[in-house]
Design a protein that fits this description.
This protein has two domains: 3-72, GMP Synthetase, Chain A, domain 3, CATH 3.30.300; 85-172, 2-Layer Sandwich (GMP Synthetase, Chain A, domain 3), CATH 3.30.300.130. The chain has four helices and six strands; from the N terminus they run αββαβαββαβ. The chain has helices at residues 3-22, 53-63, 85-101, 132-147, and strands at 27-34, 37-43, 69-72, 106-114, 117-124, 153-156. The strands form two sheets. Strands 1-2-3 form a three-stranded mixed beta sheet, covered by helices on one side. Helix 3 crosses helix 4. The model has no long low-confidence stretch (mean pLDDT 84).
Length: 173
């Protein structure tokens, strides 16, 4: 392991790893460190790391002055054929979104797909959660749009009123 990789690994252990694990990843490790560019790999769910990658980069660059950029190694699942939008979306949800929202006892499943639109159902702690729309529009939809260029939009078909244990109940707002 190079000196730069060792310094970044130490910085990860000191101040970053616990927050990454709390978001649903099993861990975060250095896979390459060349010319100031550090490549990290998330063990478990890369989806737990992607939303906070800029914050992780800022912390690493502050702790290790030799670092000029931080990248996340791609762990994209092999997506099904181009015609299976729903199947591709479910693979992405399972790899990137569901491990992160599992911390809130939640899960997202594809209820159907047609004409570029994906219908999703939020389950567990997400069903009836007062922040479900925020999760959908600021978390789930941007990830799907970035990975599925044929996507037109995402529609929530969840019966939120039937949720029995929402993570954030409307009364908590």
């Amino acid at each position: 392991m190079s000196d730069l990789a060792a310094e970044v690994t130490a910085a990860l252990r000191r101040s970053i790893l616990s927050s990454v694990i709390a978001r649903g990843a099993a861990g975060l490790r250095v896979v390459a460190a060349d010319d100031g560019v550090v490549t990290l790999a998330a063990d478990g769910s890369p989806g737990a790391v992607r939303p906070i990658l800029r914050r992780i980069e800022a912390q690493i660059r502050a702790a290790v002055p030799g670092v000029t950029a931080v990248k996340l190694a791609s762990a994209d699942p092999a997506l099904p054929e181009a015609g299976d939008l729903g199947g591709a979306a479910q693979l992405i949800l399972d790899a990137d979104i569901n491990p992160a929202i599992a911390a809130h006892r939640g899960r997202v499943t594809v209820a159907g797909a047609a004409d570029g639109w994906i219908r999703v159902r939020l389950e567990g702690g997400c069903q009836g959660c007062s922040l479900a729309e925020v999760t959908l529009r600021q978390g789930i939809e941007p990830v799907l749009r970035a990975r599925l260029p044929q996507l037109t939009g995402v529609v929530d078909v969840t019966e939120h009123e039937a949720g029995t244990e929402p993570f954030f109940s409307p009364a908590k707002r």
